[in-house]
């Protein structure tokens, strides 16, 4: 098992690292780990997804559990199916935003509680290395939950007014879902882009975090005179936004925007934000009367913390947004609905809504290959020992006028730096300074 078990899920190159034999063992071990009677299995549109999902389902059946096959779906739909169907667990075969030659598995227990590096995945990895168990095989059936899921999402639409929305599905799993949602909201005009699911990703990678992938969408929003654009990743659990001017909207600031809106519906609620988020996000939550709780990065960690805190909503810099009322899961389609609701309620443009939040200059996320991350963290902690330091996730260094977080990626061999300051000049000055400390500690460190 060449490093395919990650902090949040299982990912590997197909078929060198993750093949049908491995998927079958994963399915068998997963059913045994949960002592499951029924497991729901879904997949995305990747070229290897159908055969891997079939092999995984076979492993589940051989462990004696029944399989409900929901077919080609988004990860949010799979999570909804686990909860609404009362299944013991679910497996989603997907590699999200990664290139087409990659694939993986996202696993969750009952109520869509994810397995992760500190909640079940290490035990599963050990069980995968054991001899699979062969019991009297379970039965398999096909289940269609698309209409039920779209109905659930549509139930969050509030007072729709006419809006033109350009949606780039990235040839991923948002493609089949978005038109069904718009059928239920006649006031919205849909301008579709790249809606046919295609694991070859013929137009661009399905990764809205990458500015290169949203150029077509940005141009189309302006050309159509649209109210906003939405870009989805491959399995549609993430969503990025383009304002009416064709400008990208910072993902962390969307957390503040939605939090402010939801706190109007549920005053005093707890909102989680990932520790890379702008200080403007915390200010927005507290200004709206909410309780802001800082969280480490990653969907499994955030979902667990949300349950512990009873949080209404959470947002990540990566474009994952989580909702208590969707079982504490992340949902790109619902996030698009929330932004439409906010525009309808305010009567303002998206750029006007974002302007008060976009207060602090930031470097954005800088990715660096580093041969010895711990040495880098130690050097930075020593250099900035007079700051507020914490190690919730990597190292966060805080001063009154600027701050940064640096952390090791859970999915790639890199460290990620985010730095924010009160002014543009201070941001550039401190970014140069921090990068200098990093390169002094690790001369081979380089930006990607």
Kindly report the spatial arrangement of strands forming the biggest sheet. 1-5-4-2-3-6
Overall helicity = 25-40%
- CATH T-level fold name of the largest domain: Alpha-D-Glucose-1,6-Bisphosphate, Chain A, domain 3
Could you name the CATH homologous superfamily of the largest domain? Alpha-D-Glucose-1,6-Bisphosphate, subunit A, domain 3
What structural category do the secondary elements indicate?
Answer: alpha/beta
Query: What spatial form do the alpha-carbon principal axes imply?
Result: globular
Distance between the termini: 27 Å
Provide the CATH architecture of the largest domain.
3-Layer(aba) Sandwich
Number-wise, the strands total 21
CATH class type of the largest domain = Alpha Beta
Overall pLDDT level:
95
- Number of alpha- plus pi-helical segments: 14
Instruction: Catalogue the unreliable spans.
Output: none
Q: What share of the residues does DSSP label as strand, in percent?
A: 15-25%
Q: Report the major sheet.
A: 6 strands, mixed
Number of structural units classed as domains: 4
Explain what this protein looks like in three dimensions.
The two termini are 27 Å apart. The strands form 4 sheets. Strands 1-5-4-2-3-6 form a 6-stranded mixed sheet, sandwiched between helices. The protein has a 6-stranded antiparallel sheet with strand order 17-18-19-20-16-21, covered by helices on one side. A hairpin with a 6-residue loop joins β9 and β10. It has helices at 20-34, 49-62, 75-85, 121-128, 146-154, 178-183, 215-224, 251-265, 279-287, 299-309, 332-346, 350-354, 373-383, 424-441, and strands at 10-13, 38-43, 66-72, 89-93, 102-109, 140-142, 163-168, 188-193, 228-232, 239-242, 270-274, 291-295, 313-315, 321-323, 329-330, 366-369, 388-390, 395-398, 402-408, 415-421, 446-447. The protein folds into 4 domains: 10-144, Alpha-D-Glucose-1,6-Bisphosphate, Chain A, domain 3, CATH 3.40.120; 163-242, Alpha-D-Glucose-1,6-Bisphosphate, Chain A, domain 3; 251-354, Alpha-D-Glucose-1,6-Bisphosphate, subunit A, domain 3 (Alpha-D-Glucose-1,6-Bisphosphate, Chain A, domain 3, 3-Layer(aba) Sandwich), CATH 3.40.120.10; 366-447, Alpha-D-phosphohexomutase, C-terminal domain (TATA-Binding Protein, 2-Layer Sandwich). The chain has 14 helices and 21 strands. The chain has 448 residues and is an alpha/beta fold. The model has no long low-confidence stretch (mean pLDDT 95).
